[in-house]
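Pasting as-is:
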Amino acid sequence: MKGTVLKPAYFALLAACLAAAARLGAEWERKLAVPLYGRDLVRAQSSGEEEEESEEVQEYTSREKRTEKGTSQKIFREGASLKAQYGFINFNKDRVTVNFGMADADFKAYTRGYGYTDTDLAKLRIWRDATRTEVWNETYKTAGKAAAEKAIAEIDLDYDTKLRALLRSRGMAMRAGNVVENDIPVIVKKNIKLLNPLANAFQKIATERKYSEENLVGAVVSMVQTAIRYKIPPNLEGDLHTCGLLPPARSLLSGWGDCDTKTALLGSILGSWSGIKMVGVAVPGHYLMAIRRLPGKGDMFVRHEGLEYVLVEAAGPAWLEPGMVGTGTKALLAGKQGYRLEPFF
């Protein structure tokens, strides 16, 4: 078989085409690259009476105890498991105690499922760049420049799809402007089954004390608001970008969290009851939720698909019944930027 002799003009044309491909790739890089630390969206506002600590965040502390404002919190290791016990006063003025635990190995595997690292993104970019080069060379030879540019564009779109899928698998989403934030509906759905034993404990208490559904919801809200300490998670833990959120089980086994952390925890517990419909409510720098229920006198609510949803402020540390929100939240809801509703199911 005879070979083909390539003339200098061919190499010049090939170099020009590769340069064009590089420019095209750079353009897509600007459009699709995930902004790293400093561009992730963090929500951290409390509902009032904010309590924060300056010391470094502790994942959990052996035999830690806390008792104040009618709450008690005990987080400890027992054998190869992490456990937490919470005591609190619900809106009925009843004292309630609940427990939650996970095997240490399960907990470590669980925490690896949230957040992203620069290495995760670098692996995707390496795949994209290698695939782009291979596809360009092959397509240019067989179909020409226009087909090669189209093939490169398809690779970049595939990269964008893979990037968004990676973020979603870690409980995050890319929004307009390439801003990354926690996807609370996704996190809630991922955690319902895991937190079902805790939901069952609340159900048992409600049955024994003859609570209505409203009282049952109120008991869960009370625990999340007051027994879980209000504290802002770091946006970056080592090389892990978290957007300032602890996933629900980690919040329970650490004893603290901020607004989106607590909202995800509350939604994950309440999600065990199929009759409870919820929407997330995102406002600038803050996150809360709303439950499908006819509002009572003075209750704050939002409308979703023509139905009223009563607002629930999970953040604490203020003790606020459903329908009541903090003064700062009221201002945000009425602000120029408004709010975004995110159905949990």
